[in-house]
Design a protein that fits this description.
The protein is globular. Helix 3 runs antiparallel to helix 13 (261-271). It is built from 13 helices and four strands. It has a two-stranded antiparallel ribbon with strand order 1-2. Strands 3-4 form a two-stranded antiparallel sheet. The chain is mainly α. A hairpin with a 5-residue loop joins strand 1 and strand 2 (42-46). It has helices spanning 7-20, 54-60, 67-86, 122-128, 142-145, 149-153, 160-176, 186-195, 203-213, 219-225, 231-234, 240-249, 261-271; strands at residues 31-36, 42-46, 99-106, 109-117. The longest helix is centred in the N-terminal third of the chain and has 20 residues, at 67-86.
Length: 273
Amino acid sequence: MRDLKDDLLVKRFGREIRLLQNLIHVNVVRCIETGIDDEGKPYLVTEFVPDGCLEDELLENGGRLSPTYTANLICQVLDGLEYIHTHSIIHRDIKPQNILLRRHHKKGGSGHLTPKLADFGLAVSYARAGGTRYTKPKTGMGTLMFMPPEQVQSAREVREPADIYAVGSTLYYLLTGQYSFDFPTPPEILEFQKKGLGKFKTPQEALRALMQLRRIMHPFQIILSENPVPIRQRDSSIPRELAEVVDRAVRKDAGARFQSAAEFRNALRRVMR
């Protein structure tokens, strides 16, 4: 963590991370150790999760995942989310890139994947200690695409339904390859950047130009003023019962969503029997 220089801020960050070390769940990336290096900079050691993230899995499978496969992965994510919620932690940044994957290999086959929530509380703890939150390379404005209206207005005040919305938006994205609002997708942004022949140095620059070209409002305005597109308008082959679960998870009104990870997971399991 390179921009925490004040000793008090370093200690505060270390204290917050030590609280997270007590969290142990198969669907949550484990915080193993924190300390200070020889230059006085705090560091963090986490469980190694080597097999990419849900964004990678989506791209490797042609931009969409099947309903049964996706529902199984998201139910596991909700297991991990239920666990951190019982420890009074609100993630605030769930998205495909923050759900890492561990592949369990079997003889004669590829095995199965275990999804793990990553960056739970870490970014918030870092910012609270005085550090700067950086956007990860090549993610564009991805976090915004999974952010509920109440978090756009005040991230500090959000509760569990904000994370439910983010998981619902992730499920929507994995099933359709599109966001719940009419935002450009990462493949569209990268393709537009390539066609710019060096004009756009970053995906963020390409995204801004693409949105101006299409006359798309700023994502904040869209999230606050419009309703999510019903998922069967994206893909009519998605089963109606599954679509109802997804659409409920991404409702703008926090009170109209599932109110807990367990409620969301149980609804998903019921419709996928």
